[in-house]
Design a protein that fits this description.
This protein is an alpha/beta fold. The chain folds into two domains: 150 residues, Alpha-Beta Complex (Aspartate Aminotransferase, domain 1); 221 residues, Aspartate Aminotransferase, domain 2, CATH 3.40.640.10. It is 39% helix and 13% strand. Strands 2-8-7-6-5-3-4 form a seven-stranded mixed sheet, sandwiched between helices. A three-stranded antiparallel sheet has the order 9-12-11. β5, α7 and β6 form a beta-alpha-beta unit.
Amino acid sequence: MDARSKTAARVHEIAPFHVMEVQTAARVLEAAGRSVIHMEIGEPDFPTPEPVLAAALAGIAGGGIYYTSALGLPELRRAIAEYYDARYGTRIAPERIVVTAGSSAALLLTLALLVNRDVQILLADPGYPCNAVGIAVGPESNYQLTADLIAQHWTPRTRGALIASPSNPTGTTVPWEEMESIALAVAARGGALIVDEIYLGLSYAGQPRTALELSDEIFVISSFSKYFNMTGWRLGWLVAPERHVRDIEKLAQNLYISPATPSQRAALACFTGETHAIVEARRDEFRARRDFLVPALRELGFGIPVMPTGGFFVYADCSRFGMDSERFALEALDATGVAFTPGMDFGRHRPEAHVRFAYTIAKPLLEEGVRRLARWLPSLRPQ
């Protein structure tokens, strides 16, 4: 009996991230003294805001770093509820808010609550790699699901739909009228709607709106990682229908007991005026980076039919350069020292023709990356 036969089948059904292969190759180059421009990983380059760090240190110095409720610190749940009211004009009962060990835990809790092995969740393809089953979408729908697509693909096995707005990897947002139609389409079929809003704070097309406006029955996932620049603190939250909170609490108790107490105490400072000013200035910087990178990539020959409206990603068609996206990414890294992610990490709909760029580095580095690609790409044979 080999080692593989002794492990659970689910382990062998999970594909590795191709971006990690690119990142490993980039580190090898850097170890050899090469300069690498990193546009492969979706992690902001900005540090955690100073008020958040100060709150963490004060919380640790004050002692009392014990388990909290599996649902999170009551004062943090209240602060998140007040944030929805102040930012989006949407009143949410704190009792519906579950603080989680990262937004990935929020998604796992939601799916553990809703999904048996024999049911399906509809989602867009391309999409975030941890989501397994997708519906092919393209620029005609902003790379997002629509109510019509949900109706076409709904089967007796379908339990609900998962929407990411803004999306990873495309950076696109579901138009509000379409979000309303999606909510109605899912509700009419007795399903559950899950909306991933972890990039909602990084929206660039007017005042963003939360799907929580539409119904108390929607599950919304959010995070302190992206907008608040707290990636390593591993803290997120889930807003759930109130009748499900007790079952979610039981799942959380058994999976991780509670979110990290120092992270929760730090996160309380996210909702101060000082922190708000810091992260809003950083949002403006992300938008400026997007406004540079998208036209620059188009000028180089990448196909970008839809302007990203949120987050910090550009999903670009690289098919004219004559090789699949994985080979293209690795050859570009070797030739230019520019690292980006092959589309194989984002679903099954033409992944070989797309790559993802993350504008999570300073604009001068983006400019240098574009210059390097501009020197190399003419050596390829356009298709």
